[in-house]
Design goal:
The chain is α/β, with parallel strands linked by helices and 414 residues long. It is built from 15 helices and 13 strands.
Length: 414
């Protein structure tokens, strides 16, 4: 079967683009917006509406396969590709992707995705990660439709995997509304919660970590109060955005001792801390998370740390895994480019004995969330992110319901 045409449409994502540099600088929160001047190239406001591009492939038999190009909330920061605006990138997609795909025979997902992901433009550079992300989603859908199979089954078949027979644990994030949204997550019975957005020492962590400890104690009690069933026993997963570096001056022994107090605060629930430190350098980050994990394990402190900062690409995932830098790695799907890279990242983590978190960003779409769910059901990561958005209910519904559809169809051999 051939791809006979390609159409692009501009869309919105489930959240916003935020100028991280401006927010860390002089920008001031004003309701859902920020007051201040943007400083990252491409931004016209400190916070502006997230944009996406749907890439729709028309197949020879009249079916349409599609995926969504989307980029992370903090685009243009930390070495990431620039702000992804539909008007700027649709012409590039038309110029670069149309000749790659239109009129071509559909072969295998791995072959076609690799061709898209490795394609370079006239200046010798790869395409924007968002383009590679969305187009490879569309390619996966095209292969699935040509074979009359689910996307998850295509991935499982091509990578020699077995489709999951149970839902993957879903991680819901609360955003700044960490109390009311935690209630929503608990009442819906999500397996992992609440992210909590602890990105400031003074207001959220506390100068000695006392504010986070109090929040974790509150959360443990709240779970017991609101749990939707007797056997509900979620994992607590808190993202601290490297703030332990500031509060404890990168003294790893003090950080480990503090994590021991958080372990007690979280009981009877298991605790994960994402991004405990930010060393400002990739190699230093690898070494820091390796050493913190070793100290935790040696003292038998039952807290897992999750790699996030400085772990953005498939190569990064491999290097962090090889060094046992943390217990779990967040695989930030849009940052890896092609969805094939995210699939390979999960597989590599598991091979190396690292826990895999198939994550992403609140700034995605329902389509990218659905395709990532198929990837999760094929690769069986330890958890996957409810996305897009920060409203809890919508992202959890999209991901959980897609899992249930995959399982229901698999039970009848589809």
């Amino acid at each position: 079967m051939k791809i006979v045409d390609m159409v692009c449409s501009a869309g919105l994502t489930g959240f916003y683009f935020d100028d991280q540099k401006a927010i860390k600088g002089q920008a001031v929160a004003d309701g859902s917006s920020y007051v201040g001047e943007p400083v990252t190239p491409g931004f016209t406001k400190v916070r502006q509406a997230g944009e996406s591009v749907s890439v729709l492939l028309v197949l020879e038999d009249g079916q349409t396969a599609w995926g969504d190009c989307a980029a992370v909330q903090y685009s243009g920061a930390g070495g990431r590709d620039p702000l992804f605006l539909a008007k700027d990138f649709i012409p590039i997609i038309e110029k670069e992707i149309r000749p790659l795909l239109v009129g071509k025979e559909i072969t295998t997902f791995r072959k076609m995705a690799e061709e898209v992901d490795l394609h370079t433009t006239a200046d010798g550079k790869k395409m924007h990660t968002a383009i590679r992300y969305g187009v490879t989603q569309a390619v996966l859908d095209a292969v699935a439709k040509s074979r009359h199979k689910q996307m998850a089954q295509v991935v499982a078949d091509e990578y020699g995997l077995k489709l999951a027979t149970q839902p993957i644990p879903v991680f819901c994030q609360s955003g700044d509304d960490r109390y009311l949204n935690a209630d929503k997550i608990i009442m819906k019975g999500a397996a992992v919660l609440p992210h909590a957005l602890i990105n400031n020492v003074k207001d959220k962590l506390g100068e000695n970590g006392e504010k986070l400890k109090a929040y974790i104690e509150w959360l443990a009690k709240r779970i017991e109060t609101l749990k939707p069933r007797v056997d509900y026993h979620p994992v607590m997963h808190i993202d601290v955005y490297g703030t332990f570096s500031l509060a404890f001056n990168n003294d790893f022994d003090k950080i480990v001792d503090y994590l021991a107090t958080l372990e007690q605060a979280a009981k009877p629930f298991h605790l994960r801390i994402e991004g405990p430190v930010d060393m400002g350098d990739r190699q230093k980050q690898i070494e820091a998370l390796r050493d913190i994990r070793a100290k935790l394990d040696a003292k038998k402190i039952d807290v897992e740390i999750v790699a996030d900062e400085w772990c953005n690409t498939l190569e990064d995932v491999r290097d962090f895994s090889d060094n046992k830098s943390g217990h779990m790695i967040q695989i930030k799907t849009p940052d890896l480019g092609g969805i094939n890279n995210a699939i390979e990242a999960v597989i590599y983590c598991k091979q190396k004995g690292m826990k895999a978190y198939l994550g992403g960003t609140c700034n995605e779409t329902e389509r990218s969330a659905q395709v990532c769910t198929h990837a999760a059901m094929a690769t069986s990561p330890d958890q996957c992110l409810a996305k897009p958005g920060m409203g809890v209910d919508e992202g959890l519904m999209i991901v959980y319901d897609e899992m249930q559809r995959i399982l229901a169809l698999a039970r009848i051999g589809r």
